[in-house]
Design goal:
Length: 361
């Protein structure tokens, strides 16, 4: 446990502590309770157990930066140290997830947590600190931000019937078209993981993006046994569309979804998303998060047709070396690599993709 170095003025009652991996388990229940009670709606991606998931799946070194006052947790900043021979070192809150960063109501506590994270970034000699916020945190070291993407979220009604009535007629017709194809829809966890991963690997290859290792999804299901589940759509015995749902406190999110492109004309993906939304209403959720999208891009328009509206995604940076957009997929220098990846055999991408993507923040 490392005591915070003073970075911004604060009261003497506030302590900021850095818990390394070995100390996180003992603090996990208190940190999880703090996050759960920090707001009326809280996504599962904010849960501190993700530190264990990322450690087990990617072998990242992880840290929980905790602010304590009067013996009570008043702030949390989870961090993962991404270390890659290809791309360098980064400190991120948190890799894979669309949203994370500081959880603290007080601006002073927010600033103290960021200040300690900046010091840790210096100690680890990383290229930059990346905090995946939805609202900006004011701190002098956070000198850059990426705001080109938004979270697409749909407010959910209380009943499935109200949900269905709220859709545009075109959306309802596409869902019906998918249902006429006689696809089967299964819900489960580990028993569906192979089918899920089969679709994901094919989809990611077609997009030109390295695929995450299966261990990430196995660890996710293990960490949240009551709140993470797989939806798998099959045509006969063949998996054709799939998604992982994360049910949080008042909100369900889809961190990963995929469908085989040759099944696009069948509306298999439309039917699947209808089932995902239906599932969320049945669990009494208030909101459904489709994930991040670039404004007016293809995925943005896809999510918008369901009635989803954009919410800010503000990724803030304390940069020490290089431009913050260097490793974003839309960086023009990756266009040739993306086209080359799209021509690789899927079996090969399953082998070489996970070691590459684990080093990309």
């Amino acid at each position: 446990m490392i005591r915070a170095k003073p970075h911004l003025p604060t009261t003497t009652a506030l302590e900021v502590l850095v818990h390394p991996r070995a100390a996180i388990a003992a603090r996990l229940p208190a940190l999880a309770e703090f996050v759960r009670t920090s707001g009326p709606v809280m996504p599962r991606s904010k849960h501190p157990a993700w530190l264990n998931v990322l450690r087990a799946a990617f072998d990242h070194e992880v840290y929980a930066v905790e602010a304590v006052a009067g013996g009570q947790t008043v702030g949390l900043l989870p961090l993962a140290h991404v270390n890659s021979l290809l791309f360098g070192r980064f400190l991120v809150s948190l890799p894979y997830l669309n949203t994370n960063g500081v959880v603290a109501a007080s601006p002073d506590v927010q600033a103290q947590l960021v200040g300690r994270a900046v010091v840790l970034a210096e100690e680890l000699n990383v290229r930059y600190l990346e905090l995946r916020h939805e609202r900006p945190v004011v701190h002098p070291d956070l000198t850059a931000a990426v705001t080109s993407k938004v979270h697409m979220r749909l407010a959910l009604p209380r009943t499935v019937a109200e949900l269905w009535k709220g859709f545009d007629p075109k959306v309802r017709n596409q869902v019906r078209k998918g249902e006429r194809q006689h696809f089967s829809v299964s819900w489960g966890t580990f028993e569906l993981l192979d089918g899920f991963y089969e679709v994901l690997c094919r989809n990611m290859r077609d997009l030109g993006t390295p695929v995450y290792g299966k261990a990430l999804f196995r660890e996710t299901l293990a960490a949240f046994p009551d709140d993470a589940e797989i939806c798998l759509v099959r045509h006969g015995r063949r998996p054709v569309a799939t998604a992982i749902l994360l049910h949080g406190w008042g909100i369900t999110e889809v961190p990963t979804a995929a469908a085989l492109k040759e099944y696009n004309p069948t509306c298999a993906n439309m039917m699947m998303y209808w089932r995902l939304l239906e599932r969320s209403v049945q669990r009494g959720q208030q909101s459904f998060d489709f994930g991040r999208s670039t404004r007016e891009g293809n995925t943005f328009r896809y999510k918008k047709q369901w009635g989803a509206v954009p919410h800010p995604a503000i990724w803030q940076y304390a940069s020490r070396d290089g431009e913050v957009g260097d490793l974003r997929p839309d960086n023009p220098r990756f266009r040739l690599a993306i086209r080359a990846w799209q021509n690789l055999p899927v079996r090969l991408t399953r082998l070489i993709g996970p070691p590459i993507v684990r080093g990309i923040p």
